[in-house]
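Tokens for chain A. Residues wanted.
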């Protein structure tokens, strides 16, 4: 009792669009976060497309890990969550020793 078409080429033809869609979704899930990481690191965000190339992704991870990131210098009080100190008043004379 053969209930359906068991031809392997027909099964592959039916599964090809599903596999292609899964590959596109997985690629997007990989590229989008690395686009943001490369942008925050001060590098070209288009380098994130290299993350789907087998050996290039390993090289790019090492480049990201050991390169200097172009991040702004944050004062210590801002990193601790405190507001900045008030500016000196222009009307007060500085204290004399």
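Reply:
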């Amino acid at each position: 009792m053969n209930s359906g078409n068991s031809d392997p080429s027909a099964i592959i033809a039916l599964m090809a669009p599903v596999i292609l869609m899964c590959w596109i979704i997985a690629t997007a899930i990989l590229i989008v976060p690395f686009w943001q990481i490369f942008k925050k690191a001060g590098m070209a965000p288009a380098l994130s497309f290299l993350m789907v190339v087998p050996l290039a992704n390993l090289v790019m991870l090492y480049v990201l890990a050991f390169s200097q990131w172009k991040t702004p210098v944050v004062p210590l009080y801002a990193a601790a969550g405190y507001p900045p100190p008030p500016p000196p008043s222009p009307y007060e004379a500085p204290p004399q020793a």
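The radius of gyration is 28 Å. The chain has a mean pLDDT of 83.
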